Amino acid sequence: MKYAIPCGAMLLSIALPVGSASAADTGQDWPAKQITWVVGFVPGGTADVLTRIAAKELAQKTKLNVIVENRPGASGAIALQLVARSKAADGYLLTVPGPLIYPTPQPEIGRELAPVMLMAQGPMVIVGPARDAKQNLQEVLSDAKRRPEAWSYGSSGNGTSQNLAGELLNQYAGTKIVHVPYKGGGQAVADVAGGQIPLAILGSAPVLPQIKAGALKAYAVTTPYRLDSLPDVPTVAETGFKGYAATQWFSVAASNTIAREQLESINKALREAVTTPEFKTAVDNAGMLAGGGSPEELLTFIQADNAKWKTLIDSGAIKLAN
User: Fold this and answer.
1) pTM score, two decimals?
2) Residue 32: its pLDDT value, please?
3) From the DSSP assignment, how many helices (H) and strands (E) are in the chain?
4) What is the rounded distance in angstroms from the CA atom of residue 307 to the CA atom of residue 222?
5) Before 103, cis peptide (omega within 30)?
6) How far is CA 100 from the centre of its chain?
7) What is the DSSP letter of 234?
8) % of the chain with per-residue pLDDT over 90
9) What angle do CA 109, 244, 248 make, to 5 degrees?
C-alpha cells in the first residue's frame, strides 16, 4: 500500500513557496493581531509541551500575543489542513511532528506549508505499566511471540513517529504487536499507566514524570544513545537489536501565504526562543536536542529523514495499518 509522506518525500524544490501574490495584493502583514500556534494533538504530549514553552518565549521576543490552540484528530491532519487553508493575516503557526506518514495526501511543508524552523529532536521511550511489569524488553518480546493476542502498543496516532518506531521494532524482533492509535501522547500515557494497554511508545516528555513516580516501567529508548534522565534504561539496540534507531522531531511551519520577510522574522525570534534557559531545560530533561537553523535547513532535514522511512515502507520492511 502506498502512503503519503507530508513534509518532504515529494518536495519539488528547495525554493520556499512564500510571499504569494494573494498575500502581496491584500497588503496584509503577518500576523494581523496575534499568533495562533496550532498543535494537532491533545494536550500533554511532547508536541504540546514543547510548543507551549516555545510559544511563551516567542511572545516575549516578539511582544505579540501567542495563543496555543489544540486541534486534535486524524494524527494531526486536521491541524495541517486548517493552517494550510489560512491567510497570511490569520497569523497561524503549526507544530509538525515527524516523521509522519498518512494513507492519503495531506498538506506538506514545502508546498501548502512554509518551513519555519526545527524546534527539537530526540528519543521515544517504550513503556508499560509498572504493576506486574516484565524484567526487560527481551522478556516482553519473548512473551509477545508466545502470546501475540496479549500484546499491543499505544502511540499518538497512525503514521506517527511512534507508530513507525513500533513497526520497526516488530520487524527487528519478528513480533506482531498490534498498534493502538490515540489522539495524542497524553491520552496514551493515562491508559498505559492504568493498565488498559500493555505497552506504549511515546515521546519522553509525557512519560518521564510517570516513570519517576513509579507508575510506568521504561523498557528501552529508541535512539542510539541513552537518556541522561534515564541512565539505567537501555537503548533498543543494546537489548540485542543492533542497528535499530528511531528519532522523533518537532518542526514549526506556517501557511505558504506568509511573506518572506515575515518568515525570516519569525525564524529569527524562534531561533532565540529555543536557546532560552526554560526551553533548554525542557529539552534537556526530555533527553532531546534543541533545534534552530533556517527554513531551508529544516526542509533539507525533513527530506532526508522521510526518505529513510519511505525506503523501508516501499521495501515492505515495515507495514502500517490503513
Assistant:
1) 0.79
2) 60
3) 10, 11
4) 19
5) no
6) 7
7) P
8) 62
9) 30
